Amino acid sequence: MAKLYFYYASMNAGKSTTLLQADFNYRERGMETMLWTAALDDRYGAGRVASRIGLMAEARKFDPETDLWAAVTAENAGRPLACVLVDEAQFLSREQVLQLARLADEANIPVLCYGLRTDFAANLFPGSAALLGLADALVELKAVCECGRKATMNLRVDEGGRAVVEGAQTEIGGNDRYIAMCRRHFMQKRREAAADA
Description:
Blueprint: E1 4-9, H1 15-28, E2 32-38, E3 48-50, E4 56-58, E5 60-62, H2 68-78, E6 81-86, H3 94-106, E7 111-116, H4 126-134, E8 137-140, E9 143-144, E10 150-151, E11 153-156, E12 178-181, H5 183-196
Parallel strand pairs: 1-7, 1-8, 2-5, 2-6, 6-7
Antiparallel strand pairs: 3-4, 9-10, 11-12
Helix pairs in contact: 2-3, 3-4
């Protein structure tokens, strides 16, 4: 039976790299895949899954209106899919996560989702919350804090490198806007920034 997987981590843990490796492994064996990424993430060009180490692949774009069940089952009718891979899964809606679960349950297509668990304020993203509740398998990918501990948090910083403690949940950025940290140092940096405000 196919499963719905959620691979989650902080920034810089290699989520996109791991997705691209999984995609390569399927395609190397002659199996068809379908890649998806969030339309709002255009850091490397719209409709691209890209890793910071230089790997990249074209992907379909999803936004809040995308019916993933309809799109994937239509594609599967033309070319049987061995796997669906979703990058930036934190931006999925709950309804889209339910559609992905249905693909695993009813269409028997494994679905591998990769994304952040929490935002810069340590709040769950809607897609991540739904995946944590519905996925058959939860896999934490590891990143490292500056102190050497496991990084589980995403600290948003301003142009001066100071922690940002308020703002919109979603602000697309890379290494210059976010730093992966352990909870201890994440909380310390946020307290310092709040005290300076």
